[in-house]
């Protein structure tokens, strides 16, 4: 059975998307390989094209780059950054991040929809980072999003699936892949998200702040694969209460 | 006859007044803050919190928190790591002029200090900028003394335009401006503004700023707000530690940033923690009661109040201190520093503002960052 992740017509075997902004560049390759990631995000603002410590020089060539528009505060700025990414050959994928909140780094859903519409029309495979809201997710799909990336909890918080119930609604209602982004702190939380039926999980801080970063990447890769298998297998029922041995409706005669 | 000094609360005619209650909020909180009354249990409570209240923040700055420095450092390191990973930004300052109309008793540039004054021509600026760019740096901070006569806004603007050709990030640390002037410099290519209040204690402020536009306390206080209104993306805050009661000044600095962010949630906030340093003709200028322990306490308290804020460590501090605070609490470090006018490629055209304690070059600081298991970051900004 092949179970591939399909985003904008592109297929991937791994459902682990790796963020790259928080660990040393020299170990990027080892982290990618250990985690089995096929997509790596990078903040375009970190790309020091032709300069010192350019992250693009450290990401293996067979990996799909997912540049993000980190630093953009408006749709217009996100669009400019996306186009710059294309100019320096980062490919056609773009993770739209529009944030005008320096404290919690919450995405601005309204501006995100606007940027998504412009970039999708421009031929990008657009993957917007968003606050999980069903109406917004629908609008993003209408605007041309190839996937929708709701936050699990604030970026860098490692708090896990704080928005679990809302992400579940997106999973059941939205026809494009739902990729959990931001806040996943442990492999078990990534596994739990995958069991819910999300299509993929993106992690950065949880891997970057581990003592053994490549090993944690491996743990995430395995947890995500395991959660996916559990989802495909169909989770058995879990009762939160005892079940009466005699049926309550057994007295009925006709 | 002693010349009567001006009232530091009175704006000069050309100084813009904005509608803001931030100064009132900060100063009212500072008035209430009594660092001597804080107890061990106040500190312990603060250390348990994920988000600090204003009084928790005050507790961490108090003398009672001194025995908890290690615990604060551990907590701060976790926060720094969560928000910045192991990235350490690199930059260098370029002083383009050292003329100054202020008489600030603690500063080497003060107008009464007999030093060599100078300013770079545009051609000289370009030579300096090119030389700095060759080191690989992508972020630059342009500095001047305060002299609208010698280094006016247009002159600075031309410098910023040149800098923006060679650097991804251009910051300015110049005298406070009106909103429209900040907007002009933003259009020239500057995105980040540093203005340090030095001390938030008005009577102390008055004592150390004897004359010149800097003597006007509220105009300086409102500079960050005007910068943001002028379109700047980030603003930096700092008190000159050792000038007044450093605990109260650090408390005020944090709250200044805190209330600015409440009003302008998009603003990128950063802190600097300068301590007094010796300068030409005043070799005994020193940070008084702010030793390294106290300096670190201030930095840690900033981090725990605002885990997401940038914290810069300058060459005012010795290499051993700088090397250990990056990653734990500081997120940005200067390298290849000259604090005279120019001096990166050509001979300095004017004397230094203060004596630096860390003369290491960019490659040396780069290697030190790597040796500490951290990642030097040259570029972290796109101007859009």
From TrEMBL, chain A:
SUPFAM superfamilies per UniProt: ThiG-like
Catalytic site positions: 95
Gene Ontology biological-process annotations: thiamine diphosphate biosynthetic process
Keyword Ribonucleoprotein: no
Binding site for 1-deoxy-D-xylulose 5-phosphate: 156, 182-183, 204-205
Catalysed transformations (reactions): [ThiS sulfur-carrier protein]-C-terminal-Gly-aminoethanethioate + 2-iminoacetate + 1-deoxy-D-xylulose 5-phosphate = [ThiS sulfur-carrier protein]-C-terminal Gly-Gly + 2-[(2R,5Z)-2-carboxy-4-methylthiazol-5(2H)-ylidene]ethyl phosphate + 2 H2O + H(+)
Metabolic or biological pathway, per its Swiss-Prot or TrEMBL entry: Cofactor biosynthesis; thiamine diphosphate biosynthesis
EC number: 2.8.1.10
Domain Thiazole synthase ThiG span(s) in chain numbering: 7-247
GO cellular component terms given for this protein: cytoplasm
A Pfam family annotated for this UniProt entry: ThiG
Alphabetical keyword list: Cytoplasm, Schiff base, Thiamine biosynthesis, Transferase
GO MF term (any one): thiazole synthase activity
Subcellular location: Cytoplasm
Top-level taxon of the source organism: Bacteria
Purpose of the protein: Catalyzes the rearrangement of 1-deoxy-D-xylulose 5-phosphate (DXP) to produce the thiazole phosphate moiety of thiamine. Sulfur is provided by the thiocarboxylate moiety of the carrier protein ThiS. In vitro, sulfur can be provided by H(2)S.
Family of the protein in this entry: Belongs to the ThiG family.
Quaternary data: Homotetramer. Forms heterodimers with either ThiH or ThiS.
Protein name in the entry: Thiazole synthase
Organism: Acetobacterium wieringae
Lineage: Bacteria, Bacillati, Bacillota, Clostridia, Eubacteriales
UniProtKB/TrEMBL annotation, chain B:
Molecular function terms, GO-annotated: 2-iminoacetate synthase activity; 4 iron, 4 sulfur cluster binding; iron ion binding
Entry keyword set: 4Fe-4S, Iron, Iron-sulfur, Lyase, Metal-binding, S-adenosyl-L-methionine
EC number: 4.1.99.19
Enzyme class: lyase
Domain of life assignment: Bacteria
Cofactor: [4Fe-4S] cluster
Keyword Lyase in annotation: yes
Biotin and thiamin synthesis-associated domain segment(s): 272-376
Gene3D superfamilies: Aldolase class I (3.20.20.70)
Pfam families: BATS (PF06968), Radical_SAM (PF04055)
UniProt cross-references to SMART domains, sorted A to Z: BATS
Keyword Iron-sulfur among UniProt keywords: yes
Protein name, as recorded: 2-iminoacetate synthase
């Amino acid at each position: 059975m092949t179970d591939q992740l399909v985003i904008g017509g592109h297929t991937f075997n791994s459902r682990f998307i790796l963020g790259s902004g928080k660990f040393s560049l020299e170990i990027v390759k080892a982290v990618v390989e250990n985690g089995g990631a096929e997509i790596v995000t990078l903040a375009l603002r970190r790309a020091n094209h032709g300069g010192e410590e350019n992250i693009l020089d450290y990401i293996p060539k067979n990996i799909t780059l997912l540049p993000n528009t980190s630093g953009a505060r408006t749709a217009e700025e996100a669009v400019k950054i996306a186009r710059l990414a294309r100019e320096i050959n980062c490919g056609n994928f773009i993770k739209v991040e529009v944030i005008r909140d320096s404290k919690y780094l919450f995405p601005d859903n309204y501006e995100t929809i606007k940027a998504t519409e412009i970039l999708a029309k421009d031929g990008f495979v657009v993957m917007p980072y968003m606050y999980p809201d069903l109406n917004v997710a629908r609008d993003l799909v209408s605007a041309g999003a190839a996937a929708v990336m709701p936050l699990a909890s604030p970026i860098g918080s490692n708090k896990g699936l704080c928005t679990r119930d809302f992400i579940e609604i997106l999973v059941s209602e939205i026809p494009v892949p739902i990729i959990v982004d931001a806040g996943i702190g442990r492999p078990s939380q990534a596994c739990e998200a995958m069991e819910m039926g999300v299509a993929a999980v993106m992690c950065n801080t949880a891997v970057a702040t581990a003592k053994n970063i490549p090993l944690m990447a491996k743990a995430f890769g395995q947890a995500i694969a395991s959660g996916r298998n559990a989802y495909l297998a169909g989770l058995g029922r879990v009762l939160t209460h005892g079940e009466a041995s005699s049926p309550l409706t057994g007295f009925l005669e006709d | 006859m002693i010349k009567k000094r001006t009232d530091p609360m009175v704006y000069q005619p050309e100084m813009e007044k904005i509608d803001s209650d931030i100064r009132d909020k900060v100063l009212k909180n500072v008035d209430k803050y009594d660092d001597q009354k804080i107890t061990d249990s106040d500190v312990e409570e603060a250390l348990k919190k994920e988000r600090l209240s204003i009084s928790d923040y005050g507790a961490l700055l108090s003398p009672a928190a001194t025995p908890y420095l290690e615990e604060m450092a551990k907590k701060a390191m976790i926060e720094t790591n969560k928000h910045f990973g192991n990235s350490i930004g690199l930059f260098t300052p370029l002083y383009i002029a050292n003329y100054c109309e202020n008489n600030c008793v603690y500063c080497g540039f003060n107008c009464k200090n007999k030093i060599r004054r100078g300013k770079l021509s545009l051609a000289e600026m370009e030579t300096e900028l090119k030389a700095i760019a060759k080191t690989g740096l992508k972020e630059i901070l342009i500095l001047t003394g305060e002299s609208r006569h010698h280094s006016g806004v247009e002159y600075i603007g031309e410098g910023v335009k040149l800098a923006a050709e060679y650097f991804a990030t251009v910051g300015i640390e110049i005298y406070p401006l009106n909103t429209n002037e900040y907007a002009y410099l933003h259009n020239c290519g500057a995105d980040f503004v540093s203005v340090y209040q030095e001390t938030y204690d008005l009577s102390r402020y008055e004592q150390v700023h004897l004359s010149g536009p800097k003597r006007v306390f509220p105009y300086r206080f409102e500079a960050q707000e005007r910068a943001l209104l002028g379109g700047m993306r980030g603003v930096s805050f700092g008190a000159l530690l050792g000038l007044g009661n450093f605990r109260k000044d650090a408390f005020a600095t944090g709250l200044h940033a805190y209330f600015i962010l409440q009003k302008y949630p998009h603003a990128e906030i950063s802190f600097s923690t300068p301590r007094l340093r010796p300068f030409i003709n005043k070799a005994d200028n020193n940070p008084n009661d702010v030793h390294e322990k106290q300096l670190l306490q201030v930095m840690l308290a900033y981090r725990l109040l605002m885990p997401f804020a940038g914290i810069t460590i300058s060459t005012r501090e010795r290499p051993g201190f700088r090397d250990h605070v990056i990653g734990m609490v500081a997120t940005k470090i200067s390298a290849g520093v000259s604090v005279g006018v120019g001096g990166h490629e050509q001979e300095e055209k004017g004397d230094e503002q203060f004596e630096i304690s860390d003369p290491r070059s960019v490659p040396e600081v780069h290697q030190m960052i790597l040796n500490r298991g951290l990642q030097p970051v040259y570029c972290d900004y796109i101007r859009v």
